[in-house]
Specification:
Distance between the termini: 34 Å
Structural class: alpha+beta
Largest sheet: 4 strands, mixed
Number of strands: 4
Number of helices: 10
Order of helices and strands: HHHHEHEHHEHHEH
Strand order of the largest sheet: 1-2-4-3
Shape: globular
Length: about 200
């Protein structure tokens, strides 16, 4: 079901793109299980479970990213900021962090956690501090999207396996904070390449 949702999402977000850009977006399904299945934890512990550095998902993600990097197919990375400490988002960020140097990289604000989780603001600050310590500071960039609130609601409701109407409203309304746009936290390489787009 999740694979079908992902494929449907990709078709919807690329339908209005010029053909050349459509060809630059690929989905690679790693068949990773969500934390309740993979780590055998209850749903209510998703934000209270630290990353397990021996989690096989980390190696699987790194192997896929290595392959993309070696073939020259990885032109940029967009990663979860892991606001709200969702263990799946933290795991992806942990796995991908070694690939962020020297490549355009952006971190998105995890929803609905950015709107509801009490640690979201401190999580964002911790991400920014860690980036500073690695001498890769992050800057906020807001991308405007036509009809973003309604478009986002329609797109995310396509994930019926995990998003209900209430969460859909929370997530789509978040874009109103940025005049209907999206805020990403980006490195200098991202600014150098995508500042004009």
């Amino acid at each position: 079901m999740r694979l079908r949702e992902d494929e449907h999402f990709l078709r919807r977000i690329t339908q209005d793109l010029p053909k050349g850009l459509k060809n630059n977006l690929d989905m690679i399904d790693l068949n990773l299980k969500d934390a309740p299945i993979r780590l055998r934890i209850p749903l209510e512990q998703l934000s209270d479970t630290p990353v397990n550095t021996t989690d096989a998902a980390i190696e699987k993600i790194r192997k896929a990213l290595t392959k993309q990097s070696e073939t020259g197919a990885m032109q940029a990375l967009v990663l979860p900021a892991a606001l709200g400490n969702h263990v799946d988002h933290l795991t992806v960020r942990e796995a991908a962090t070694p690939f962020t140097s020297g490549i355009p990289c952006a971190f998105y604000e995890d929803l609905p956690y950015a709107t509801t989780h009490p640690s979201a603001a401190t999580d964002l600050e911790a991400l920014r501090e860690t980036a500073e310590q690695r001498n890769e500071p992050l800057s906020p960039v807001i991308y405007g999207i036509d009809s973003a609130v309604e478009r986002k609601r329609k797109l995310i409701l396509g994930y019926a396996s995990q998003i209900d109407d209430e969460a859909g409203i929370l997530i789509s309304d978040f874009a109103t904070r940025y005049n209907g746009g999206e805020r990403l936290w980006v490195n200098q390489a991202w600014l150098d390449v995508f500042a004009s787009t």
